[in-house]
Predict the structure of Class I tRNA ligase family protein.
Amino acid sequence: TLYNTYSFFSLYTNLDKFNYAEADIPLAERPELDRWILSELHTLIKKVDAFYADYEPTKAARAISDFTQDYLSNWFVRLSRRRFWKGDYQTDKISAY
């Protein structure tokens, strides 16, 4: 799932010639879906840090796997596909990257 998600992402970023330097869109101006996935990502980071601090690498790996499958792939990418498929290269599409 991680490989497929990355392949999807890299395909469209390369087609659009996306540049990370232009991706500095303020959080308040991003769509709700983007703010949600960023919130889930920060929650994941806290969980993984705690698991590593407790010497629980298996739990950390499971948390990363769950995030990738449940949130990133099943929700964010699926709900954002139309944003990636858009022909215009506007703030909404840049925010999705």
